[in-house]
Amino acid sequence: MQGNVRTSFRPLFYRLSVFALAVMFASSAIAEEQVSSAKGKTEYILAISWQPGFCETRPTRTECAGQTAERYDATHFSLHGLWPVKKSYCGVAADIKARAQKGDWLELPQLAMTQETAAKLKVAMPGTQSGLDRHQWLRSGTCHGGTAQDYFSVQLRLLEDINASAVRSLFAGRIGQDVTESEVKRAFDDSFGKGAGDRVRMRCQKVGARSVITGLTIGLSGDVSAHAGLSSLILAAGDTDFKCAKGTVDAAGIP
Q: How many CB atoms neighbour CB 119 within 10 A?
C-alpha cells in the first residue's frame, strides 16, 4: 500500500499485513520442518493445495469467492509454490521485499512470461487473483536461478504429473469423505516409486468438528530445471513426518 492510503482503508491493510506475515512464517516453518528428519537431503518443497479445503478455511480470499464444482481446482490440485530450502528473497530490493511482506501482492511488479504460461498459471494457481504468483516469485523464484517463465513452467510440469497420478484420483474419488495417511502414501508409492509417500506431508485445519485437508507438501531434491522426472526428484529427497493422519477431502463451495 502507498503511504497516502486513506485512513478508512487502514484496518484492511493491517489485516492483510498480518495474513501475509502468517503465510510467510508458515511457509518457512513447513520447509524447515520437512528437512529436519530427513535421511537424505531435501532441496526444495513443492507445495500444492486442495483448493476447496483451503477456501473453506479462508472464505474471504478473492480466489475463493467464485469457486464452483465445475471449476478445475474443485477436483484437481492447485499450485501454492516451489520453495528452495532455507533461501528466500534472493537479490530482491529492500523496498520491494517490504511491500511483499506487508501483503499488497497485487501492487508488486507484474511477472514476465508468455501468454500461454500465464493462461495455464491462472487455472493451476487460483491465488494469482490475489497476487500469489508475484509473492512466490519474489520470495522463492528469485532463488531458483532462472526467469519467472522458467520458475513457473517447472511448477506447471510437476503439477501436471501430480494431477495425472493415483494421488489426484484418490482425492477426486473421495470428495466429501476422509482419506488416511496410509492411503495417501500408497498412492504416492504407486505413482512415483516405493518410498515416495515418506517424502510427503499432509496439511489439515480444523473446521468445526472436521479436520479439513488444505494441501500437501512434497520434498524434492535434484535439478528441477533439467526436466527430471518427478519420481526421481521425490525419491532423492529426505523423509518427513506426515503430520495429519486423516482428513476430509472437501467439496467446492462454502457450506
A: 11
Between CA 218 and CA 197 the distance in angstroms is: 9
Asked whether the beta carbons of 247 and 47 are under 8 A apart, the reply is no
Within a 10 A sphere around the Cβ of 106, how many other Cβ atoms? 14
Tens digits of residue pLDDT in 57-93: 999 899 998 888 999 999 999 999 999 999 999 999 9
Name the residue among 203, 234, 235, 221 with its Cα closest to residue 50.
203
C-alpha cell at 135: 509473492
Question: Residue type for 184, please?
Answer: V
Q: Which residues contact 73 (CB under 8 A, 6 or more apart)?
A: 49, 51, 52, 67, 123, 126, 252
Report the alpha-carbon distance of residue 210 to residue 234 in Å, rounded: 30
Q: Which residue has the cell 487460483?
A: 126
Which of 235, 215, 76 shows the shortest CA–CA distance to 156?
76
pLDDT in tens, 198-228: 999 999 999 999 999 999 999 999 999 888 8
